[in-house]
Amino acid sequence: MDYQQVIEEVYEEVNALQLKGKVASYIPELSSVDPNQFGIAIVDLAGNVYGVGDYQKPFSIQSISKVFTLTMVFHKFKTKLWSRVNVEPSGNPFNSIAQLEYEKGIPRNPFINAGALVITDALTTKYAQPTTEILSFINELSGKTCVEINEVIKNSEMKHADRNTALAYFLKAYKNFDNDIAEVLDVYFAHCAMEMSCVDLARAFSFLANDGYSIFAQREIISESYARRINALMLTCGFYDESGEFAFRVGLPGKSGVGGGIAAVMPHKFSVAVWSPELNEKGNSVKAIKALELLTDKLSFSLF
Ligand code: DON
Asked: Is 0.90 surpassed by the pTM of this model?
């Protein structure tokens, strides 16, 4: 299969559709990005890179970082952590507060903001310098030093943090939050403000297409059974209240971010990252979803 030719076709066809969305503006600094950027990168399990468009340009990975933070605590799967966060699709927006009250402070899954805050809280308990640990973990997965924290975006989100702060206080009220709220939020905004290109993101996701073994880090990151479970969570929860639609249209485990990126994997074949900043009303990139839909259609395979 000539992945390069396929993604070039996908790129042309998506551009011709002139899809429109809205760049995220609730984090003001995110809206200063050029909305017309669009890139696709595939990395196969031999490490070959196929890329088109703006695939080498760093962008704000936002919630895609939650896959990495989850991976860092996944070995605690059989422990207390899994009584603190559930593994069910939420069917609600990523920053919903209502569900957290109905369900007594146990977030539906580790990818909605409340769940990701619990994971970041666990990392803050585990490490003296959690942000540095997250940064070096992602660099290791990519096989090179490529991750940078955009301090302007981080500060911009911190100044508009009312909802995430409310979620954290809510978790604390239900005794599902161990550390200082400001400290955990600082780590959370730092990992959301990390910047990577499509190609580096696809490299960093490669272990999830490869039963937990990273060819770039040259070690097993997590066991095969844990890699399968992270993929299951991405498939069922990776796109919040659009997860069913993404499984229906694309059929790959993936994770989106409000910076307009999506990273996904085709187990035993490749990892892929697509980026274009304009989002639909669910907070997922319109062009990236369309590109991945065309990709699995053209390849005639997905998980299904
Ligand atoms: O906490 C937030 O709202 C952002 N830092 C991340 C949200 C996000 O990327 C949701 N994904 N589509």
From this structure: yes
